[in-house]
Amino acid sequence: MVGTVKKSMETSCLTWFSTAEWTGQQLRQAFPFDQLPRYLLRDRDAIFGADFRSQVTNLGIHEVLSAPRSPWQRAYVERVIGSIRRECLDHVIVFNGTSLVVSLVRISSIITRSRTHLSLGKDSPEPRSIQPPKMGRVVALPQVGGLHHRYERRAA
């Protein structure tokens, strides 16, 4: 789930055989009752059946359906999916569900803690403090097994 205000990304569980009940449970777990979103933009996948729609309605969330075969109407989600594919999954070998979850958690951490966004004033969704040169030299901190790096100043 992707939040559009702070470019935040909520991670949830992985299943090979998702149901409407399971999908609704993921939605309830992602948002506490005091932080429910007003809108849910979704596609027309069959997983979003009557059970899921009733859960969303009971939570007070307004559903917005995108037009069939119109990924540009879900631009934020499509961009995140593309980033995950290009920056992570195209470069790692996934052995099983556990290795997939580990890779997805690591890349979501990069997206929310390390990647800067112009719309956030060149900061990441989880703000970072400015590190002046007096804090030391710049060192590379490997992430996702060295696939990506985060650069910080560290005292020698």
Tally of distinct domains: 1
What order do the helices and strands follow? HEHEHHEE
Q: What is the count of β-strands?
A: 4
Tell me the CATH architecture. Answer: 2-Layer Sandwich
Mean pLDDT: 81
The N- to C-terminal Cα distance equals: 40 Å
Helical fraction equals: 25-40%
Work out the radius of gyration: 18 Å
By CATH reckoning, the class would read: Alpha Beta
Looking across the biggest beta sheet, what order are the strands in? 1-2
Q: How would you describe the shape?
A: globular
User: Structural class per helix/strand content?
Assistant: alpha+beta
Proportion of residues in extended strands: 5-15%
Described by strand count, sense and barrel closure, the largest sheet is: 2 strands, parallel
- Catalogue the unreliable spans: none
CATH topology name: Nucleotidyltransferase, domain 5
Please tally the helical runs, counting DSSP H or I stretches of 4 or more residues: 4
